[in-house]
């Protein structure tokens, strides 16, 4: 019971701190084309999660010597690609100065 109350208190506190969505992107901002940073983010995440991680898992099952280096490379590529996600959406998430 106490854990449930603590969980709900945390959710309510985060929802209250989130804001009221007063900044709505303009039609021009919303219709901007997908830039290169976002394509880089998509390519790196898709490559890491759809190709490298499954391949590393299969190599681990057969105890291949490239299992650990491939797993490390997949994590590095995924974390690097994660950085490019927020970079590409900065123009939509930051409020503009009137």
Structure notes:
- There is one protein chain.
- By secondary structure, this protein is an all-alpha fold.
- Helices cover 74% and strands 0% of the residues.
- The chain has helices at 2-18, 27-30, 36-61, 67-88, 90-93.
Query: In angstroms, what separates the terminal alpha carbons?
Result: 47 Å
By DSSP, the count of extended strands is 0
Model regions low in confidence, pLDDT < 50 over at least 5 residues: none
Structural class: mainly alpha
Report the biggest beta sheet as strand number plus sense, adding barrel if it closes. Answer: none
Task: Give the mean pLDDT.
Answer: 79
Task: State the helicity in percent bands.
Answer: over 70%
Say what oligomer this is.
Answer: single chain
Name the overall outline. Answer: flat
% residues in beta strands? under 5%
Report the total helices. 5
Provide the succession of SSEs: HHHHH
**Global Rg:** 20 Å
Could you write a compact summary of the structure shown?
The protein has five helices and no strands. The chain has 98 residues and is mostly helical. Helix 3 packs antiparallel against helix 4.
Describe the secondary structure blueprint for this structure.
Elements: H1 2-18, H2 27-30, H3 36-61, H4 67-88, H5 90-93
Quick tags:
98 residues; mainly alpha; 5 helices
């Amino acid at each position: 019971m106490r854990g449930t109350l603590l969980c709900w208190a945390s959710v309510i506190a985060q929802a209250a701190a989130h804001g009221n969505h007063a900044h709505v992107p303009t039609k021009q901002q919303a219709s901007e084309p997908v830039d290169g940073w976002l394509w880089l983010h998509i390519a790196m995440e898709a490559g890491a999660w759809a190709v490298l991680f499954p391949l590393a898992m299969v190599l681990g099952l057969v105890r291949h010597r490239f299992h650990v280096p491939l797993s490390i490379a997949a994590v590095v590529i995924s974390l690097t690609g994660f950085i490019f996600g927020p970079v590409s959406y900065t123009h939509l998430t930051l409020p503009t100065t009137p």
